[in-house]
Amino acid sequence: MRSGTLVQSHESWFEKMTTTRLNPNHQITLPKSVREQMNLGVGDVLDAVVVDGQIILTPKHITSKTSRKSLPRDEQKIRLRIQTKIEKIKTDILRSRGLTSKEADWAVKKGLVSKDQCYFWTEEWQKHERKAQRDIESGRLSPPAQTAAELRKQLDGLKRK
């Protein structure tokens, strides 16, 4: 963050500030004007950080060629489902599920994921990612190879299992 920019624009954004309240579940409701200006909707993820005693929320938008408002309601639901799955993969891979091939195709068409990376988000790929994560967490790892010959020997050993 460029602190000079924050200080210079402080007076202009301070005048536009709206007030919200922390509810009993420690949640806030973003004012409609803020949600509309930032094109935020249900399921969007925001990063939160404290800087000089102030809370700064920054949307983590998944790049998209289409704005939420331009999508029909049924497609908005599809988009939310896909975004939710992607966020779950990023934050809790062991309890996540990947995209179906139909969802992956839709995500590429709508610009949610790039075509050359869409395989990664599919359930077919994610089941292997979950297995790898379980192996890591349970300590089922090969020691680091010090030489190419040592690596070859380790890989040959894996083929036999």
Q: What is the tally of beta strands? A: 2
Largest sheet: 2 strands, antiparallel
Strand order of the main beta sheet, please?
Answer: 1-2
> What's the number of helices?
7
Structural class: mainly alpha
Question: Termini separation (Å)?
Answer: 50 Å
Q: Name the overall outline.
A: elongated
Q: How much is the average pLDDT? A: 82
Radius of gyration from CA coordinates = 22 Å
Please bin the fraction of helical residues.
40-55%
**Tally of discrete structural domains:** 2
Low-pLDDT parts are 1-10
Strand content: 5-15%
Query: What letter string, H or E per element, gives the SSE order?
Result: HHEEHHHHH
Tell me what you see in this structure:
This protein has a two-stranded antiparallel sheet with strand order 1-2. It is mostly helical and 161 residues long. The N terminus is likely disordered. It is built from seven helices and two strands; from the N terminus they run ααββααααα. The chain folds into two domains: 57 residues, Pemi-like Protein 1, Chain: D; 93 residues, no CATH class.
List the helices and strands and how they pair.
Layout: H1 3-16, H2 32-38, E1 46-51, E2 54-59, H3 73-91, H4 101-109, H5 118-121, H6 123-137, H7 148-160
Antiparallel strand pairs: 1-2
Q: Key terms for this structure?
A:
single chain, 161 residues, mainly alpha, Pemi-like Protein 1, Chain: D, 2 domains, 7 helices, 50% helix, 7% strand
Condensed summary:
The protein is mainly alpha-helical. Helices cover 50% and strands 7% of the residues. It has seven helices and two strands, in the order H-H-E-E-H-H-H-H-H.
